């Protein structure tokens, strides 16, 4: 039967989402913003609910946009609220000119004058997994490697490869290795309350390298291997045209609570790791179908535990699962999504639930 879960109260969750953020007893009375800070980091210094970072600035009407906080600016606690003071000298030095910071060769350039990011770029950089999730129909339509020059079994940098499919000369394509195929429920069955997982919702593709197209003729394309990620490329690996910018999108994330009553399951960890902690990636079985978007925050929830009642052995007692960490969505597909663990008190594992923070939700 369906059981209504109790609200979780742990060190991760200390106040209702509708309440204004409450300052921690040990919050610093005075703080000078440092280079490399993020609004999320600063919020954690002052409150146990960092996703309520906007609430911290509600008593500073002169600060219309909290993103316009810069290194050198000062924060003070006055009568239980945060008072913000702009250090114009430091801020002007920070904003001078129109320089940009390029995060990696594949990521979007973000102007420095945007101020502090909500989540630290240094934290995000290099932690995302380069992976696609495609439907069964998309999978069948992808071009794939059929062989290499000189009858090589493996392809390495600067070696020619041959691809079944008409590719665009001069274009760069990412090469992927097929990984796990996930199953879920039909959308109609979900609406009817059925629980059987009997339809494919997505297949993981792990990036293995990049190629540049030399020419294409009669359904076969010749490509040069531009680079490889770990080991060499292999026959049957799949190709997807490289987007003009990182397909992760803009890294200027603003963490926000996921849509109410979101109930996603952690169905995988790239690399088939048993568990992950802060900085680890997870695969969820909900995506655009659940209205998820980059920046959404979900609470990783341990499974319920059932124990025999010591006073009545014929009965079982349900012990609600405990909060394990916080997951931020960074890439969304039709029925699946990728998330990164930004806080964890316990290991995050497959088959855990990822739910809207503070929400009451139903499960079997």
TrEMBL record:
Coiled coil: none annotated. InterPro entries: Bact_Kbp (IPR052196), LysM (IPR018392), LysM_dom_sf (IPR036779). It comes from Wohlfahrtiimonas larvae. Residues 1-20 form the signal peptide. Residues 29-77 form the LysM domain. The keyword Signal applies. The keyword Signal applies. This is LysM domain-containing protein. Keywords: Signal. Gene3D superfamilies: LysM domain.
